[in-house]
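Q: Could you fold this chain for me?
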Amino acid sequence: MDRRALIADAGEAIVTDDADAAAAVLAGERGPIADALRAFAAYWSADYAACAHFARRSYADAVDSQQRALALAVTLWAQAAGGTGSASAEVEAAPAVVAELHGDEEVSVLARGFIADGALMMGRLDVAQAVAPAPEDTSCWRDSALEVPLRGVPVRVAAFAGRIERARAQLAGLQDAGRRHRLPAWPLACEAMVAATAGDTSAARQCVDALLALGLDETSFAGRGALMLAAYGAAATGDESAAAALARRAGGHRDLSLLACADRAMAVDLLVADAITRGDERAVVRSELLLAELDRTAEVTLPTLLRTRARILLHRGDAADAALVAEASAELAGAAQRRLEHGDARIIAARALLHADLPAAARLLRDEVRAADAAGEHALRVRAARVLSAARRRLPPPQTAWAALSPRECEVLDLLRAGHGEDAIAGRLHLERSTVHRHLTRAMSAFGTSGRVALLWAAGATGERRPLPELTSRQRAVTELMSTGLTNAAIADVLGVSAKAVEAHLAQAMLRCEVPTRLALAHRWLLRE
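A: Sure. Below is the predicted structure, expressed as structure tokens.
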């Protein structure tokens, strides 16, 4: 049987979970291509020992570029399953192996997709992005069910790298392939993850519900992979309970042994996060035992393991070490272009810093959210906002807030930013005060704030910077918190004083700064030298 036909027939059987048909196709076939397909079939059914065996044999016998590429792909899968380091010689060699591909274009495209998949499973988003075929190139497998996993590779690579808009653009081709080949699980799982990460919680939940209604088989790679993608999506929206439940099901057993090493580490992280939220210390300890086993594996899991350690340290009150470990996790994830994991680690680092260094925590989250917004990863903003709300702080609004306003609304907001109250704005623009109020209410909605002071803080004050008159330390603290839009009661809660004391401090600050209102005081504070 020629190379393309062998891959098409065996691959079709494997991805449609027909193990008997795959075995019949491969019976009597010899050589590195057949062994690579045997490794593929073994990985699909979670027989990782057999996958490693056939991958070694395929790698040893490969003589041409396509044979070497397919052997490399299944070798990466075997390494990902066993936890071999992400700095392995094979994963580092992947771009060079892909560059040497020639011959049948269809086989070369498949090999590139499988290598990218292996690099993705090893947490090497940098390599996966470098070698993955373009979505349109995978159309050469349109007549085979192999098109579905191949179409899924660039979507998953883009999503895990935090390129959400790109992932969204590529979903249509994957969904079309899923419909034509009657394989809906992979498209639904990818859509759930992309929607959740983009902040579309409702769409993500609908996809997960539809996915679970399919009755997935956790013993197949498609079933496990779909459940784990859905778990990642649930985690992105902050639904830790749903994420943990999906990860448990994907793992198949209490030890999560059906999962390859990187997914097992992610599943443990999800279980720990859920146990901490529920206050289930016994579940935290059980997850730590799984974590200890993974600690003995190599770099493929290290960013995830460090992030989980940071969660546990923070849970047990060691905020200083938690911040350090979380930053180490973020650094490793960033180096491998694992954007989603980088954001998760930064959230934990900020939580650890909140009480010791609130300004540093706020800066860290603002920077992370700015990068996430630019990539379309809007779910991170929601989780970061929750962290800051515990310290009575807010995130700056997304840059799209201004685009949601009409020219007149922008004009009204610009006058507020310059320090003018509603009466002054009405006079300058010859509007009714109620009209100004309506425009400012619309601006508050766009910026996600309540109150004029909070809107001023979110949109930014404009004008000349001037030094403040001398204020007491308490007056400065109260004024700073008020300028973020907090109420007197909220300020009192943060500072541990009474609301009446807050009111008195603000009155004295306004007197010393010679301003008549809280809005004017906030404007002076925000433009202080």
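A (continued): The mean pLDDT is 87.
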